[in-house]
Design brief:
Layout: H1 6-11, H2 14-19, H3 21-39, H4 47-58, H5 63-73, E1 83-90, E2 96-103, H6 106-119, E3 123-125, E4 134-143, H7 150-160, E5 164-167, E6 171-176, H8 181-190, E7 195-204, H9 212-226, E8 231-236, H10 242-249
Antiparallel strand pairs: 1-2, 1-3, 2-8, 4-6, 4-7, 5-6
Helix pairs in contact: 3-4, 3-5, 7-8
Amino acid sequence: MSGHSKWATTKHRKAAQDKKRSALFSKLSRVVYVAAKTGGPDPANNASLAAAMEKARSYSLPKDKIDAAIKKAAGAGEGEQYAEIVYEGYGSSGVAIYVEALTDNRNRTAADVRSAFTRAGGNLAATGAVAFQFARNGEILVDKAGALDEEELLMVVADAGGDDVEDNGEDFVVLTAPAEMMRVRDALVAAGVAVKGAELAMRPITPVVVSVETAKKVIRLMDALEDSDDIQEVYHNMEMTEEIAAALEA
């Protein structure tokens, strides 16, 4: 199992995420709100909002909550002001950690992030210390039970401008350039492909192989970081091997 995608890490932490569903919905609503506030409430003319809405739907955020966030962003007045901040650091055994935050209080968020790294035996690093080890991609999750086999799927993806298809064991993950994600997603749907979700994600350029014990420590650090309401995404550069996947599911 390749397991480089955001989906591959997330599926092995689903139980923990289910317990945090309320917090997750709040975070997703915040992303939709900021995208609509920044680029306007019409997803047809706001690619960031279209991507935010697709991601929110991927994680089952109810339509009324998505609509409420957009309506709130389109309302009169300045509303809440959020800053996008990236933190970079290292977890156990030097695993690269890339953290994306959306916050209305920089000091609070910085303290939360610093505390999580310290408790997990990791350390924060300077801006740019690990970012070069990742690349931004679109990831579209496709149900293997969909209408197309892998070869046909590859043809549709290529024709639509997508980059590649990975098999994460349970599903296919279609990779695209960020700007092409929604266009490729729409082409897949038009071709009868069962799309389960789509989102922009940071992917490690060269994943590193680590021990099961190291992987568990890194996942614990990620969980601690995501306990903060301000943290949107946490990425790592570990290779999610079959052995690690089995250990995380145990």
